[in-house]
Design brief:
The complex is a heterodimer of chains A (401) and B (126). By secondary structure, chain A is mainly alpha-helical. Chain A is built from 20 helices and no strands. Classes of the chains: A mainly alpha (401), B alpha+beta (126). At the A-B interface, α7, α9 and α20 of A face α3 of B.
Chain lengths: 401, 126
């Protein structure tokens, strides 16, 4: 996929892709800044490939196997490389997580998943670097320090957040980074930063952007069949029976072939929904679809997702929103973070979780100043935590002795 | 993680799993040495061969340090939903699962890289 993006970038924009890439590095990537709208296709795809390459290098040097969580991480990072992440703003976060690991006598590989998904806080680095009005070098140093400090406390927070929703929200780092970004945004607002709402949304219909996900999905299905033959479909069916609760590594549980087919099917299903909604195929939407495809190896499947997505859609109509608008369409895609709730407790809780998710996600972005790219993960984590608290309270207090 | 916490988490998760079958008897025995520990768990429930195989697979799953440190923190804590033996499998050194006349016997060995479960000082009876 990295190679595909690089080739496409140069085929579309030639050397302009490099210029666009450099422009992105000096762009504050707060939500929602669609890099396609900022620099065009070439530079954006190159940036996505670059952050994907950083992730792949980290996976390689730490010696971690390429499996469900790492597959999810690479797809997610590349997806968000289309709207928010840059090599420049993710490296300080990774450095912070590494220092945290060293402090407690561990290596980066032990916290690799936290480091990779923790890059959701990349915009914190960009904001301090580029939006505080400080001279370039001062801003850069302060931005790097802020990102490193944030990365340093991510492992501690990530585990605490995991206990809150007990693994029933897939994007745990979204909740973690959102929680941390709340503090960072409050601090920066107190320091006088206005945090004006950002919305750069590419809405031009371009065939190439509409075809990226379907082509990639078919390639994944083909790869799955290539790896496992007919067994891939049997594994795919078995994956549908799993709740998806964190950590569910579908690659380990049901095999590579089935996981790849599941990723392809999720990509195609997502594409159909976006088409039917009449939404734009741009950085955030393609990024969202890449994310659910990645998590199709680590918790997302059709069976645990449909009721949550239905809940978001109904919520959209009830509250008079337009499904093709940025907030609702992203909520439809990313609400699959709540899949494990439906997978474990059934479609009705899943539906209501999706319904509430849309309401939450429309508020949480402004709370954290758009500095946590996984805003749906933040909202989804909060929603899951409430559901889990209620279910647990009921079960614990219902006398069965 | 402190050793005491680790032991509590291991016991919590494995108990959660076995208590799902509502056994009338559950025995947990702990033996500690300087660089390792052994947990032996016995119950009086009949488990199918398929379940035994899946338990063995989960408990002896390949080591996943990237998951053990992060998601392993859920071991023995988060009891809502099914118990998950793979969380244990990522953290322990070795396990044996055997069916006895009355029920099941699970041996869990945990220790540092130096720790050899086969050289553990509890004599093995033939």
């Amino acid at each position: 996929m990295i190679l595909l993006f690089i080739i496409t970038a140069f085929a579309v924009d030639g050397s302009g892709a490099i210029k666009g890439f450099w422009t992105i590095q000096l762009h504050p990537g707060r939500l929602i800044n669609d890099f396609f709208a900022v620099v065009g296709i070439g530079g954006t795809l190159l940036n996505s490939a670059a952050v994907g390459l950083v992730a792949m290098i980290l996976i390689y040097i730490t010696g971690v196997s390429f499996s469900g969580p790492t597959f999810a991480a690479v797809f997610t990072i590349m997806g968000f490389g289309l709207f928010g992440k840059t090599p420049l703003n993710i490296l300080p976060i990774i450095l912070g997580v590494y220092l945290s690991a060293r402090l407690v006598g561990k290596g980066l590989r032990d916290y690799l998943i936290i480091a990779l998904f923790g890059t959701a806080l990349g915009p914190l680095v960009s904001v301090v670097f580029l939006e505080t009005g400080l001279p370039l070098w001062q801003g850069l140093i302060l931005g790097v320090l802020s990102g490193t400090a944030a990365g340093f406390i991510l492992p501690a927070l990530a585990v605490a957040m995991l206990h809150m929703h007990q693994g029933y929200s897939l994007y745990n780092m979204g909740l973690t980074c959102g929680f941390l970004a709340l503090f960072a945004a409050s601090f920066l607002k107190a320091a006088g930063l206005p945090f004006e709402k950002a919305l750069a949304w590419h809405s031009e219909n371009i065939l190439l952007l509409q075809l990226i996900i379907p082509i990639l999905s078919l390639m994944l299905i083909g790869s799955g069949i290539f790896f496992s033959g007919k067994k891939a479909f049997k594994s795919f069916v078995l994956i549908q029976k799993l709740s998806g609760r964190l950590p569910s590594d579908f690659v380990d549980m049901e095999g590579t072939g089935g996981s790849l087919v599941n990723a392809g099917v999720m990509g195609l299903a997502g594409t159909i929904i976006v088409f039917l909604a009449g939404a734009d195929f741009n950085g955030p939407v393609i990024g969202g679809l890449l994310t659910i495809m990645g998590f199709a190896a680590f918790g997302t499947n059709l069976r645990n997702s449909w009721s949550v997505v239905a809940g978001v859609m109904v919520s959209t109509f009830v509250f008079g929103m337009k499904l093709s608008d940025p907030g609702p369409i992203l909520a439809v895609i990313f609400s699959t973070t709540l899949g494990p709730l439906a997978g474990q407790f059934g479609y009705i809780p899943g539906f209501f979780a999706g319904f509430i998710h849309l309401i939450m996600v429309s508020q949480t972005g402004s709370w954290q100043g758009g500095m946590n790219l996984y805003n749906n993960g933040f909202a989804g984590g909060l929603t899951a935590s409430v559901f889990i608290a209620v279910i647990q309270w009921y079960r614990n207090n219902k006398n069965d002795m | 993680m402190k050793r005491k916490d680790l032991i509590l988490n291991l016991i919590g998760e494995i108990s959660n799993y076995l208590l799902d079958d509502d056994p009338m008897r559950l025995v947990i025995s702990l033996h500690q040495e300087e660089d390792g520990l052994h947990l032996c768990i016995l119950d009086d429930t009949k488990h199918s061969e398929d379940e035994l195989e899946s338990m063995k697979k989960a408990l002896n799953s390949r080591k996943r340090p990237e998951l053990a440190e992060y998601y392993g923190a859920m071991t023995g804590h988060d009891m809502l939903g099914s118990a998950r033996l793979d969380l244990l499998g990522w953290q322990i050194k070795h396990s044996d699962v055997t069916q006895s006349d009355s029920g099941i016997k699970i041996d869990l060995w945990f220790g540092s890289e130096k720790f050899q479960s086969d050289k553990f000082s509890i004599p093995v009876k033939d």
